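Appendix B. Extra example for self-study. Work through it before the problem class; the solution is given directly after the inputs so you can check yourself.
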Amino acid sequence: MDIIDGSESVSITGIRNWILLLLIFSVITVIGNYVGYHHPMGESLVGMLILSGLTLIAMLLERYVPLNISSIVYVSLLGLILSLPMMPTSGFIVYYVSKIELLAIVTVFLAYVGIGMGKNWDQFKKIGWRGAIVTVAVITGTYLGSVIIAHIVLTLTGVSI
Amino acid sequence: MISENNSDSVEETNRFRHKTDKTILKKKPWKSYKLHLTVLALVIIAELIGPIKVPITSNIELSAMPLLWAMLGGLFLYLFKPAKFITRKQARIAEGAMLLFIGPLLCKLAISSGQSIDVLFKVGPALILQEAGNLGTIFLALPIALVLGFKREAIGMTNSIGREPNVAVVIDKFGFDSPETRGVLTVFLIGTVIGTLYISFLSSFCVSVLPFHPYAFAMGSGVGSASMNAAALAPLLAMFPDISTNIEAFSGFSNLISFCIGIYVCIFIAIPLTQKLYEILEPKIGRNPKDSQKEGE
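Solution. Structure tokens for the complete assembly:
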């Protein structure tokens, strides 16, 4: 495996495929956002294009900056920094992105996840119930541990809603 | 040693990325238009059904959001094949596309974080310290795994929530053919299939039963993968629509922290702690090895 693996396969076609997929995703989300939450389509499309654009930049940064930082981290940092109140980009980005409900994005995302995870179903059945019980315990323990500590620290530091 | 460990595990993470690249860069996305139209139909149906609240007792109710309908619909289409064109190939494209679509999802969360940065600073200590809460899984899940007859697999299974970065760390530390790796891959796979569904009900249940701070639930929902994060967040957003931006901000930031420092918590604290606890507990509550080999494969 190369040090910056993946970069060799990013051709013009690759980038075009990313852009097309992000556009398809944006359009579906905008329709879902309209059906479920009645946000105007034009404004939420601008919001989705902002999110898609930042995603694209993050994907390219991941492959061309030789730092081994995942695009997930890049996209989070980009979104965070560009929407800080002191940034000139903040007003524009926050206005349009607020027209898209997080849950509308998630619904589209999970529809793809649902189809994709069907593939793992047979393997899943093979592992059996004991693995499933442990997995449920793992998720419960992590979630509750995190919630309980957060609640204690929030209470101690006196944070109200 | 630290940096060496790190670069190795990041390389493991890259392997997942490599797979994605291969799938979505070679296939022309418009050729699978049937897949995208199917998703569009699923989304419209899911949004039209809307959220459904299921009362369990007078003051406990579980809420199921449209995102669950969309996901279950997708799974149903794949498993029962009412539409012939949803095949294994389509599933692979969906899986590849999904890894790209995490981007806009996390970006939306990050923008919520950015606009409420002052609140984030105010709750900074809670955000950082709750990461230690992830160790809770060891105390809850390790004894259960041992009682069920798992041996060294249990160390891989229960040291963390078992998403991509954790899988990478375990493979890096124990090698690909070790029981520990088999364990973490088991949890990874099952978590992929039922994790999102389960955490959505868990969060829905906890939010209505436990009298905790809504921000604490928001931070807790950031523990797993992006889709688990979103599924755990949905019931909370439905219950507290007025503070939704803050809730998104905490959850997104908690997820980012899990991703950035979670890997170090896993390497330096979680795995050694799990091994220690395993040595103590295994002779006491572990079952005999023959049992575990029968089903443990």
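Self-check: Chain B touches chain A through 146 residues (CB under 8 Å). If your reasoning did not lead you there, revisit section 3.
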